[in-house]
Amino acid sequence: MSRTAKVLRARYENGVLKPLEPVDLKDGEEVIVFIRRRSVREVLNKYVGLFGRASVEELKQYEEEAQAQ
Predict the structure, then answer these.
(1) pLDDT-based confidence at residue 16 (cuts at 50, 70, 90)
(2) Are residues 18 and 11 in contact, defined by beta-carbon separation less than 8 angstroms?
(3) What's the burial of 54, exposed, middle or buried (CB within 10 Å: 0-12/13-18/19+)?
(4) Which 8-state DSSP code applies to residue 63?
(5) What's the pLDDT score for residue 42?
(6) What is d(CA 23, CA 44) in angstroms, rounded to the nearest whole number?
(7) Nearest alpha-carbon partner for 64 in 43, 50, 47
(8) Distances (CA, A) of 51 to 7, 45, 59
(9) Which H or E element spans position 16?
(10) What region does 54 belong to: left with phi over 0, alpha with psi -120 to 50, or beta?
(11) Does the global pTM surpass 0.70?
(12) Are 18 and 10 in contact (CB under 8 A)?
């Protein structure tokens, strides 16, 4: 039995965690899942400097959009 760990992103929809990438598992195989929510700051940091300088209003808009995702 392999005990390798893999990190993958998933989306929770209608009571089900759905992987966002292929998973090498057999049907019915059990796994242990650790849940870590992506923070708004983490999403926004991905784009820091990408569009140059931004006003406070623009940053608030980006934050609202990130929270909606």
Answers:
(1) very high
(2) yes
(3) middle
(4) H
(5) 73
(6) 27
(7) 43
(8) 29, 12, 11
(9) strand 16-19
(10) beta
(11) no
(12) yes
What tokens does 65 get? 């959009």
Distance CA 27, CA 31 (A): 11
Write down the residue that tokens 């006003």 correspond to: 55
Q: Which two tokens stand for residue 53?
A: 């300088």
Helices (H), 1-69: 40-45, 56-68
Count CA atoms within 13 Å of residue 19 on its CB side.
9
Spatial separation of the C-alpha atoms in residues 58 and 18, rounded to whole Å: 32
Q: Give yes or no for a contact between 40 and 66, defined as CB atoms under 8 angstroms apart.
A: yes
Residue in the structure block whose two tokens are 């992103």? 9
Residue with tokens 């990130």: 66
